[in-house]
Amino acid sequence: MSQETESGPVGEETKREAARRAKEKARIARWDLDVAVFLFVVLIIVIILLFQDINIGIVAPIALFGLVMVWVVGWRRGRQLYWSFYDDELDRLQKVIEEADEKDKRERKVTKTIEETIEETVQRAFRERWK
Fold it and tell me: What domain range is 24 assigned to?
């Protein structure tokens, strides 16, 4: 994933920072309400089957299937969230870099203008003195 802007390619440090923040956000948001509800449904089914005196050989695979499904759904959701957050963080960090560049350019322009004004004043003073 290579993003380029007017100021050039996104730096490796920026990519690492975006990846770190995206991992953190994805880890937090991986388990949503749907996964929790599914997990409770599997738990309820297992409990009901056990109370109905269904053989553990039948109940265990159902419980295992439910746990595997919860893990797969959580893993997929985490991966999708990671890439979504990664792109968001890259965009946000790139905007911050561009704003800093713009601010730096404005400051340099003001400094240059001030320097030119001072230089013009000094030259004018020298011209007046030598007249």
Answer: 11-97
Domain tally for the chain? 1
Q: Average pLDDT, whole number, for the chain?
A: 78
Q: SS3 for the chain, per residue?
A: CCCEECCEECCHHHHHHHHHHHHHHHHHHCCCHHHHHHHHHHHHHHHHHHHCCCCHHHHHHHHHHHHHHHHHHHHHHHHHHHHHHHHHHHHHHHHHHHHHHHHHHHHHHHHHHHHHHHHHHHHHHHHHHHC
Residue 6 binned pLDDT confidence (cut-offs 50, 70, 90)? very low
